[in-house]
């Protein structure tokens, strides 16, 4: 037998052997399927149902978010125009006020934003606890709105003479996605509350953070002055 013929025979045998192994494995799977047909069916149905539920919920939430955005469009315009009562309340032509959007679409990003707007309005109107309640409902995680919401909560607590909670939320605002535009402002608020609480060493430390991290900001120059004043007053470096 020539080498070529021998090689062909070996390849044929290899293919046949592979085919036999494959048939054996398929037969084993068929036997397992027959034996566990009910279990396999239940698992398959469960996977399909889970996928359908996930994509269905995602579609539903997107639809709800679109509805909420359209519903609050006019109210946001009123908010920006400082027409606070109009922004809060439902109006003509099917327009929904921010309160209704927050109540009916609170699980959507737009509904979360409505909570933020309502909280900001109540703060301006002097309804501090109501402001806190709505601002705490905002949890969409936006890198700008989240720290702003925390800062406004701090403002509301400060108005209620609750300095400890005010300080807590100013710190949260400063630590969420730190940046040179807003973080120094939130730190300055925290330092001023620490001064009110007569925690002068902590206030000096917070002013130092502003100076070291954001010295080129407007707050950096102010922090230098306020820290120097406290250091002179307390005799601490």
Description:
This protein is mainly α. The protein has a domain at 141-237: Tetratricopeptide repeat domain (Serine Threonine Protein Phosphatase 5, Tetratricopeptide repeat, Alpha Horseshoe), CATH 1.25.40. It is 79% helix and 0% strand. It has eleven helices and no strands. It has helices at 3-35, 37-80, 84-88, 98-104, 109-124, 128-137, 145-159, 163-175, 183-196, 200-213, 218-234. Helix 2 packs parallel to helix 5 (109-124). The longest helix has 44 residues, at 37-80. The chain starts with a helix and ends with a helix. Mean pLDDT is 81; it is low at 8-17 and 51-57.
SSE blueprint and pairings:
Blueprint: H1 3-35, H2 37-80, H3 84-88, H4 98-104, H5 109-124, H6 128-137, H7 145-159, H8 163-175, H9 183-196, H10 200-213, H11 218-234
Helix pairs in contact: 2-5, 4-5, 5-6, 5-7, 6-7, 7-8, 8-9, 9-10, 10-11
State the main characteristics.
mainly alpha; elongated; 237 residues; single chain
Question: Brief description of this entry?
Answer:
With 237 residues, this protein is mainly α.
Number of helices: 11
What summary fits the major beta sheet?
A: none
Give the oligomeric state.
single chain
Return the string of H and E elements: HHHHHHHHHHH
Radius of gyration: 32 Å
Q: In the CATH scheme, what's the topology name of the domain at 141-237?
A: Serine Threonine Protein Phosphatase 5, Tetratricopeptide repeat
Under CATH at level 1, the class of the domain at 141-237 stands as Mainly Alpha
Q: Any guess at the CATH architecture of the domain at 141-237?
A: Alpha Horseshoe
The CA-CA distance between the termini, in Å, is 99 Å
